[in-house]
Amino acid sequence: MYALASVTRNPAVRLVLALLREPERVAELDLADWDAAVRVARAARVLAVIGARLRRHGVIDRVPEPVRIHFDAEENLARFQRQMVLFELHELSHVLGPLAVRVVALKGAAYVLQRLPAAEGRLLSDVDIMVPRADIERAETSLRSAGWVPDEIHPYDEGYYRKWAHEVPPLKAPGHAFEVDLHHTILPLTSRLRPDPGALFEQAQLMAGTGFWVLRPEDQVLHACLHLFHDSDCSEKLRELVDLEGLLDAFNAVPDFWPTLVERAASHGVERPLWYGMRYVSKILGAAGPTPEIFRMRGARPNTVVRSLMDWFVPDALLPHGPDALPALRTRMRRRVLLLRSHWLRMPPWLLAWHSANKSARRLSELWEERRTPSAEGP
Amino acid sequence: MPVSALQQSLRGAGLGLDFGLVRARLRSDVPGLAQKLQLLYAHFPVEPADGFFDITASLQWPAGTRRFVRPQVEFAVDGQLPFDPFPSDTDLPLLEWGLNWCISGRCHHVLLLHAGVVERAGRAILLPALPGSGKSTLTAALANRGWRFLADEFGALRLEDGVLLPVVRPSGLKNESIDVIRRFAPTAVLGPSFPKTHKGTVAHLAPDAPSVSARRQPAGPLAVVFPKFTPGAEVQLSEMPRGKAFAKLAANSFNYDVLGAKSFDALGRLISTTESYRLSYSNLDDAVAVLAKLHTNLLAHADSDNGLHTHAL
Amino acid sequence: MTSPATGHRGFPLLCVLAPEDCRRFAFEDGTVVFNPASWQSHLLNPSATRIFNALFSGPCSRDDLARLFDEHDAAEIAGTVDEMESLGLVGRIEPSA
């Protein structure tokens, strides 16, 4: 079917992409198809998203009963997580409100606050918020005094987090479902790209009645692209690509959205990640939004060699595999290349070498430690 | 099914098993597993491996080495490895435990209470699994005295109507319980003992044939009985205040939090329409007798329907 | 006679948060309530149940609540109300002018 053959040959993955792209074709799947599709979609964290799309298109009742309960179960899970985000934000607002600091919600938390359709069926793992760098210490101190505590991490990582990365180590209030990631910008300080945090805060929009701000729509899209194509190795990131598609869908109707997107990308210096974002969201998910102007941005388009390599590596790295097989050797190698790329983009060479050496030493010491006992009920 | 055929399924398209609440497809290349499964799942009809399954999991050798020097096995589900590998001489516990983990992590269409469930005359008793309760032992004992066995681990409460859905799987018995049940029910089928798990010695009790056949039949709850194994104690049944019963059940649930208001309503209805008790015991025969009597008394007073209709909130 | 909403001397009033969303089951040893914000459930002992039921009917001041109980329970009542507030079961509203 259509251009999917060019992004993956895995039949289960093609089914998942088909369900995402054309939910109304749900009746074409037989039970064996569903078996493979549900497994891959669950592992890729998009099962609930597919469920939400099926519901929105009014075709959920065409799903066979044994499969339908999986969508019901995932929907319950997604609702729970959405409520936990709202609750966490509510509690955070009590602590951070008195500080009179502009707190910007990012990613999943922002989608929930904005009630975007993209937030439906989205599974989260933490709550991301951003405060100006000058206020981050105050914010962290207030949170800690109010009972949020850092998850146990190795002292080296904590140092790295604070000094070079763009976030404080994750904090969690006891009894709360989610961790809070407190940032002061959207990329690590050491990155080769330096989006302007001041401009991000200045143009942020207040979500009335919540005490939180969100990035302006164009900046949210840029953040999603950066997160995918600058800050990560693209590995198993279908969910994030779906987020990006959701954002484009939601903001398409915002006046002058596309020209402003190009303008903002230029002013932050992040045209290349935007270019990749638009390219792969249309290639893999068939998103109709990106206009030709996007692809003609000056300085954005990579040279032919790089473009071919990325076209070759990215779908393979980004898309899920399975339902059974662990990724093939060639996929692991491609992901390694993309991982190196993201580290390269994230850290200068000397810091990269230091960071790698430490991680290896630590892994060796972990091998000697006692085997971790499982957390669920034993036999 | 003969062991050789089982082994072929495991190494090929998979062995299909229907536990009631969920259907699982198992694959494995670990030698010796087929025999163990044949023993524990003797009464389960073999399902064709094609079609839709709720869980597809495999017990396998890790990629790479570790087959000869201190060999290990790992549990994989949908291309992911949720746990560290186990030594290969504890393969079956890992598989059973892994399957329970899958059930507890994805069945959010029902409220999963952590309890054993047995039934007689169409009405069930729920036995919540607090630490030190001896829940598995007591559930196994009841199952071997004429009660239908619905579950050892999961009290699966259907949200729409409050009935309990069977999750018929081998029961995990630990340490002394293994011998206790062997003596109590000499004809019960017990799998091999695994002495070196992190929970001590573990063996699995195979579900009996009638319970397996009835795995798709729900049961209306009649009572909640919190067992407490108390060495040397005389058997004693006392009423438990229902607020406390609610709180204890909610705290001993796999997904109470996830379901929010739905689980609140379902649990409230369960507690409102049943009686809750505490049972301390040391002698299994006494405990079984007391529960039989309780069940008979409650049934005589229960609604004439078999407890399967909803009560408006 | 002061209407319940104005309370005593204009102190903030206590009320049940989102009474229309409030789910509860009354049992012999207390009431279980569902907190729609945190999705947590709480078992209220008999005194807490009385406080909760009073607030469920309409906002009350702390003094109003204290009148429901004997004098020597005053500290316990205050503690219970504080705890209920921290759990998000009850909140404060400003009395209308």
Description:
- The complex is a heterotrimer of chains A (379), B (313) and C (97).
- Chain A is an alpha/beta fold and 379 residues long.
- Chain A has 3 domains: 1-63, no CATH class; 77-215, Beta Polymerase, domain 2; 216-367, no CATH class.
- Chain A is 55% helix and 6% strand.
- In chain A, helix 3 packs across helix 4 (65-96) and helix 9 packs across helix 12.
- Chain B has 2 domains: 3-106, no CATH class; 110-301.
- Chain B contains 10 helices and 16 strands.
- In chain B, strands 6, 7, 8, 9, 10, 14, 15 and 16 form an 8-stranded mixed beta sheet that branches.
- In chain B, helix 1 (3-11) packs across helix 2 and helix 4 runs parallel beside helix 5.
- Mean pLDDT of chain B is 92; it is low at 305-313.
- Chain C has one domain (13-90).
- Chain C contains 3 helices and 5 strands, in the order ββββαααβ.
- Chain C has helices spanning 46-57, 62-66, 74-86, and strands spanning 13-16, 23-27, 30-34, 41-44, 90-93.
- In chain C, a hairpin with a 6-residue loop joins strand 3 (30-34) and strand 4 (41-44).
- The relative contact order of chain C is 0.26.
- The chains are: A alpha/beta (379), B alpha+beta (313), C alpha+beta (97).
First-residue to last-residue Cα separation of chain C: 15 Å
What is the ordering of alpha helices and beta strands of chain B? HEEHEEEHEEHEEEEHEEHEEHHHEH
Structural class of chain B: alpha+beta
What is the number of helical segments of chain B per DSSP (H or I, 4+ residues)? 10
Which two chains touch over the largest interface? A-B, 38 and 39 residues
Strand content of chain B: 25-35%
Main β sheet profile of chain C: 3 strands, antiparallel
- When the domains of chain B are counted, the total is 2
Total individual domains of chain C: 1
What level of helicity do the residues of chain C show? Answer: 25-40%
- Topology, number of strands of chain C: 5
Give the rounded overall mean pLDDT of chain B.
92
Could you tell me how far the N terminus lies from the C terminus of chain B, measured between alpha carbons in angstroms?
Answer: 48 Å
Report the helical percentage of chain B: 25-40%
Estimate the strand proportion of chain C. Answer: 15-25%
Order of helices and strands of chain C: EEEEHHHE
Radius of gyration of chain C: 13 Å
